[in-house]
Design a protein that fits this description.
Layout: E1 2-7, E2 14-18, H1 21-28, E3 40-46, E4 49-50, H2 58-65
Antiparallel strand pairs: 1-2, 1-3, 3-4
Length: 67
């Protein structure tokens, strides 16, 4: 499971969950992606383990998972 904690323009933290990381990557390829690239990521859990991102944005997470 992929669990993304993110903030949109200084609002409260939101959480989006996907069964697999590939589900998130596929959703970002849509004409209108699930999450905007510039959203600030506060925490990401992949299979229950936190991952560290150099670029703490949805776009950075996409690039990290799409390697």
């Amino acid at each position: 499971m992929l669990e993304i904690h993110y903030v949109v323009a200084g609002s409260k933290e939101e959480v989006k969950k996907y069964d697999k990381a590939s589900d998130f990557v596929g959703a970002q390829y849509k004409e209108v992606p699930d999450l905007q690239d510039n959203y600030h990521v506060t925490k990401v859990l992949l299979a229950g383990k936190e991952i560290e991102l150099d670029d703490k944005t949805i776009g950075g997470l996409f690039n990290y998972l799409n390697k």
